[in-house]
Amino acid sequence: MKPIGLLVLVEASIIGAQSLLEAIAVFPQLSNFHDLLNANPSAAPSLLTNFSSGSNKQTILVPSNDAFDNYTRTTRRSSIALSSPDLVDQINYHSQQGALSSSDLQKPGGLLSRTALISPNRDNRGLESNGAKSPQVVLIAAETTGNTRKIKVRKVGRVDVKSGKGQEINLDPTPRNWSGGNFYIVDGFLTLPVNQTDTMTAQNLTSFVTGLERTNVVEGTNAAPNLTYVCPNNEAFTNLSRSTGNLTSGPGSLLATLTRHGLPAAYYTTNFTDGRLIYSQNGYPILVTHRNGSIFLNDAKLVGTDFIAVSGAVHALDRIMGFLNTTTNVTTPATAHIYRNPSNIPTPPRKSSLTPTSPTATPIPPVATIFQSSTTVRWNSQHLRLILCVFVVEGSKYLILG
């Protein structure tokens, strides 16, 4: 019995010492990806050799031959088109940081997985506390249908994996090993993230985009790093974005409403914990509550989530958010009061005066620095103090509402 056990251990050691290219060679359903890596060795050299380091393990989401067929069918282009400048980004997006186990991928509430993708045109999520560039992410979540359990990868964006534009692919939760970590088979290619307004358009949040266009802030919105928008759906936002003549005057204006639905950080559903208090771009408090299996931001329900964008994420709401009454205990959902009429809106309080008391609340993220110009408009004490800021970066004007 001992020689047999030794043989098993030796065999497992040999398998574990394989490069990814060698490891996937024994799977006929992965032959297309194997050939793609073999034909483009410079795209991912670390996957072609034995990865001997004990740290910096990776989990690779390997597209099956069906994924290549789906790509050809949906894009009407040959899979050879993947041999392009985007190929490096594509492989980096499929490369997850750490050796993720099957249980990691089925974490309740989903796993926000950090990838190797950091190219500027695909990742603008800002810097981390150590000064390093914050990498792009995918959201991996398990979904149960009847007696069947599958994992989605959402390109915050089945086991599902969610990626750019909120596109989803399915993941087989059976882990396989290579010398650099694990790999899992997926049935599609992750969609590379695009900017905020293209992400909104892909999810048919076109009325919100129209509002950004009418107030001339599309360019600034797409250039800003580390940004999330929670967009009212078309039914909720169409009348305001297309018909209002009040573009910039007061807290009920189109610009103020748009900015109130912007969050100055990358927020995904994994960050929207029950009782958390967060702040919009122009300083208004937003209370997160979980009710009957749904997530609410003040009185608006999230109806579409984790559409991953270059700078953060886009989410969809069923209505325009109301205004949280900060004179009550705002971290207690039962006593929170929402204003619907802009004429009742108090001035946003100083952030230091609103310390979340809920045990699930987390520290308030820092608000982006505002460069003030001489253009300042003030309303009475019942209204928002609005600062319109214009500054120039590399020859382009940006308008920031603070």
Question: Helices and strands in order, then pairings?
Answer:
Elements (H helix, E strand, L loop, with lengths): L1 H15 L3 H5 L6 H9 L18 E6 L1 H11 L10 H8 L1 E3 L4 H4 L5 E4 L22 E9 L2 E7 L5 E3 L5 E4 L4 E3 L2 E6 L9 H7 L3 H9 L3 H6 L3 E6 L1 H10 L10 H7 L1 E2 L13 E3 L5 E7 L2 E4 L2 E9 L3 E6 L5 E2 L13 E2 L36 E2 L8 E8 L2 E6 L1
Parallel strand pairs: 1-9, 5-6, 10-16
Antiparallel strand pairs: 1-2, 3-4, 4-5, 4-6, 6-7, 8-9, 10-11, 12-13, 13-14, 14-15, 15-16, 17-18, 19-20, 20-21
Helix pairs in contact: 8-10
| Class inferred from helices and paired strands | alpha+beta
Q: Report the portion of residues in β strands.
A: 25-35%
N- to C-terminal distance: 73 Å
Radius of gyration: 24 Å
Shape type: elongated
Helix content: 10-25%
Largest sheet: 7 strands, mixed
Question: What integer is the average pLDDT?
Answer: 77
